Amino acid sequence: MAVTINIYYSGKNGNARKFAEEMTLSGTVDKIRVEEGNLGYDYFFPMADDETVLLIDKWQDQHSLDLHHASPMMQTIAELREKYDLHMRVERYVSDDQCVPESDRKFIKD
């Protein structure tokens, strides 16, 4: 079962965006994206909140996520979170590996 983690990073004075920029420019994001089991690692910027950045982090399974958490990149991420004094809200989703129900398909345009 795939695991998706939504992390809302919040700070002040644009620090959440600065964090995402440094993660990207330093190459850390690219390193995470090539880790075995990573299915996606993308930042999004909520239109109604300039001080928050949403990270959607997708993994093949819990084992892949555990390996990521044990990797050296976690130290880099922790240091950058401290540097930018960020706070986090986390949501976790596990896929049920089922197809989209037919009743929902009429709302989806492929």
Structure description:
It is a single chain. With 110 residues, the protein is of the alpha+beta class. The protein has one domain (3-95): Alpha-Beta Plaits. The chain is built from five helices and four strands, in the order βααββααβα. The two termini are 23 Å apart. The mean pLDDT is 94.
SSE string: EHHEEHHEH
Oligomer: single chain
Largest sheet: 4 strands, antiparallel
Cα shape: globular
Overall number of structural domains: 1
* Radius of gyration, CA atoms, in whole angstroms: 16 Å
Can you give the helix content as a percent range? Answer: 25-40%
Uncertain regions spanning at least 5 consecutive residues:
none
Q: What proportion of the residues form beta strands (DSSP E)?
A: 25-35%
CATH class: Alpha Beta
Q: In CATH terms, what is the fold-level topology?
A: Alpha-Beta Plaits
The average pLDDT value, as a whole number, equals 94
- CATH architecture tag: 2-Layer Sandwich
Work out the number of β strands: 4
Helical/strand content category? alpha+beta
CA distance, first residue to last residue:
23 Å
In terms of topology, how is this protein built?
Elements: E1 3-10, H1 15-25, H2 28-33, E2 38-44, E3 52-59, H3 62-69, H4 73-83, E4 87-94, H5 102-105
Antiparallel strand pairs: 1-3, 1-4, 2-3
